[in-house]
């Protein structure tokens, strides 16, 4: 097991290096950079020399391999560089937004799991009845509905609803407060984006729960349990559900790793100052440093989550042995 | 010889299958959701082809007399802040969505198909390199990779197509490779090699036709994904640009400003996206059931 863990952890390094190469060279493939966006974007006449000076300052004139070396060696010295747009250290830019995004991500996962597992179980137990059809339609709709549109609808509903009931429109607060400072204020801000991203997430998990449970319910030991007269509830909860949780766990892990993608749009809708929004802004400003670091962060989260899911898998299912 | 003579008497009867409409009806009964999906897809295709004929207005005509008119007989879905008819823009938006969706899905999965089959066929070092590359690309969330491509190329309809195509290639390559690995072991591939056929001929003529089922399933699923992705990118302002009609673009800056005055502005385009993706997903699911029951688990 230890050997397996070491091997997997070591394999992460080439993956990250590959991702670093792809993102680094892709961003520099096409002409245009942050200096042009910043100086020429104002619409005023800009001296070519001024742009050149700006590039010089940001190190964009150095040979590309030197730039790549600076980028990668930054991970060893823990110096991720500065944002080309704001000039502040990237670690700082990420740190001030990380809490918000990770909180929304965790809350969205909770929302998803709390909705998905009961629904998936009901849908599997009542297979091919109207309950099943309703649950399945609900989850297919969740996959089709863009989360930013759901976010817009939630805001519309909140505004119109509060107008109707309290006489004045209410909007979730815009500034982030830590949940340890003001729990309710924090919740009233973040619960809505968590629901908007969580719905889609839950749809995927519901489908997986349903199909995994249906598979397990066809096993021989379920028939045995029924034959010996066990209560159906116990069969479902103890025998079937536990054994069907493995694929569900995988899908929860994969979706969590990719949650960042959902946050990119949701944070925009709810005006949240999180990592997703930072990413969109950095792309718009052609801030290469920031974009590549954020992409690397997302890839790191994805790779680590996959690794953790594999480990938990082995821990939950003694039949799986990694050698 | 006698056997052969008697055998000739058993000529296959005339086509005993039911006429096509009866078979089609049976298919509809067995796959009601898939039929619904196909219906939505066909509706979208028709809207795309006949956009000029069916849409009541000009999608790019700005009119200040008709700004934010609520839904009425003359404007079924109301008008937006520039006085443009929303129904018209939704019909033209179907054109954008289908163009981006089909092109990205088709090109992405076809490149993935060739890469996946080649990877399985050659094996060895080539396979290893391709698979590591696929691993790396698949560690990027779809929209993050697409955004990174947009960061490189800049916004615009064609760049959006490229941005959406690239993440599809590794996904399709992975699925196709696993099917192609099984086919590679079947003796006819060895036979083809023994006959001295070139690698490209074996890959394209002998192996590719046999992985058509997973390929077609991937294409239909990708169209739905691509429509959603295009809408997200356009919503973020990094996709299709004004004045082109695109659903995601129509949702831009919709919520707060229009909540009280014009809720119809954000509602209808979102409904169109949901319906379109819904249709392609249902269609894809039904196709999967028909073509390859083994893939049903996922």
What do you see in this structure?
The complex is a heterodimer of chains A (323) and B (298). By secondary structure, chain A is mainly alpha-helical. Chain A has 13 helices and no strands. In chain A, helix 1 runs antiparallel to helix 13 and helix 10 packs antiparallel against helix 13. The radius of gyration of chain A is 24 Å and the shape is globular. In chain A, 36% of the residues are buried. The mean pLDDT of chain A is 83. Classes of the chains: A mainly alpha (323), B mainly alpha (298). At the A-B interface, helix 1, helix 6, helix 7, helix 11 and helix 12 of A face helix 6, helix 7, helix 11 and helix 14 of B.
Q: In summary, what is this structure?
A:
The complex is a heterodimer of chains A (323) and B (298). Chain A has 323 residues and is mainly alpha-helical.
Features:
heterodimer, A: 323 residues, mainly alpha, 77% helix, globular, B: 298 residues, 14 helices, 0% strand
Shape of chain B: globular
Shape of chain A: globular
* % residues in beta strands of chain B: under 5%
Major β-sheet annotation of chain A: none
């Amino acid at each position: 097991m230890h050997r397996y863990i070491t091997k997997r952890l070591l394999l992460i390094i080439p993956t990250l290096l590959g991702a670093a190469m792809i993102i680094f060279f892709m961003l520099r493939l096409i002409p245009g950079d942050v200096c042009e966006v910043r100086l020429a974007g104002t619409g005023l006449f800009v001296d070519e020399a001024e742009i050149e000076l700006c590039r010089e300052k940001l190190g964009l004139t150095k040979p590309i391999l030197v730039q790549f070396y600076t980028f990668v060696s930054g991970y060893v010295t823990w110096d991720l560089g500065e944002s080309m747009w704001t000039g502040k250290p990237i670690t700082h830019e990420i740190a001030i937004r990380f809490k918000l995004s990770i909180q929304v991500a965790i809350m969205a996962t909770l929302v998803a799991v709390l909705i998905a597992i009961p629904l998936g179980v009901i849908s599997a137990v009542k297979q091919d009845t109207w309950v099943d059809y309703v649950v399945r339609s609900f989850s297919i709709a969740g996959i089709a509905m863009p989360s930013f549109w759901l976010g817009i609808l939630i805001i519309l509903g909140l505004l119109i609803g509060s107008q109707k009931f309290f006489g004045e429109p209410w909007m979730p607060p815009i500034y982030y407060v830590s949940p340890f400072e003001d729990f309710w204020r924090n919740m009233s801000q973040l619960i809505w984006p968590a629901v908007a991203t969580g719905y889609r997430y839950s749809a995927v998990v519901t489908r997986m729960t349903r199909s995994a449970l249906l598979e397990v319910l066809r096993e021989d030991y379920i028939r045995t349990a029924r034959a010996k007269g066990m209560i159906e509830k116990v069969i479902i909860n103890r025998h079937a559900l536990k054994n069907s949780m493995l694929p569900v766990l995988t899908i929860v892990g994969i979706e969590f790793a990719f949650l960042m993608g959902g946050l990119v749009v949701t944070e925009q809708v709810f005006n949240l100052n999180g990592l997703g929004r930072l990413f969109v802004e950095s792309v718009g400003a052609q801030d290469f440093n920031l974009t590549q670091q954020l992409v690397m962060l997302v890839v790191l989260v994805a790779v680590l989550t996959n690794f953790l899911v594999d480990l938990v898998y082995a821990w939950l299912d003694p039949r799986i042995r990694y050698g | 010889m006698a056997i052969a003579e008697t055998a000739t008497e058993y000529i296959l009867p005339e086509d005993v299958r039911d006429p096509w409409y009866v078979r089609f009806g049976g298919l509809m009964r067995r796959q009601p959701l898939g039929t619904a999906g196909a219906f939505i897809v066909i509706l979208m295709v028709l809207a795309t082809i006949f956009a000029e004929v069916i849409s009541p207005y000009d999608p790019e005509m700005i009119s200040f007399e008709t700004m934010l008119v609520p839904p009425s007989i003359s404007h079924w879905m109301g008008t937006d802040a520039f006085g443009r008819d929303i129904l018209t823009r939704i019909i033209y938006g179907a054109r954008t969505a289908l163009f981006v969706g089909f092109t990205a899905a088709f090109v992405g999965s076809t490149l993935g198909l060739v890469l996946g089959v080649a990877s399985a066929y050659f094996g060895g070092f080539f396979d290893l390199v391709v698979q590591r590359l696929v691993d790396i690309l698949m560690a990027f969330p779809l929209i993050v990779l697409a955004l990174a491509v947009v960061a490189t190329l800049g916004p615009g309809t064609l760049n959006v197509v490229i941005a959406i195509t690239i993440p599809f290639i590794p996904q399709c390559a992975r699925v196709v490779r696993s099917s192609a690995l099984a086919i590679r072991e079947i003796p006819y591939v060895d036979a083809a090699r023994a006959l001295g056929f070139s690698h490209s001929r074996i890959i394209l003529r002998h192996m590719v036709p046999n992985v058509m089922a997973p390929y077609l399933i991937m294409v239909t699923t990708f169209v739905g994904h691509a429509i959603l992705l295009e809408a997200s990118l356009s919503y973020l302002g990094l996709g299709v640009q004004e004045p082109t009609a695109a659903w995601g673009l129509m949702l831009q800056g919709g919520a707060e400003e229009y909540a009280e005055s014009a809720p119809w502005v954000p509602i209808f385009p979102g409904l169109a996206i949901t319906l379109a993706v819904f249709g392609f997903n249902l269609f894809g699911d039904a196709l999967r059931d028909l073509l390859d029951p083994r893939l049903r688990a996922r």
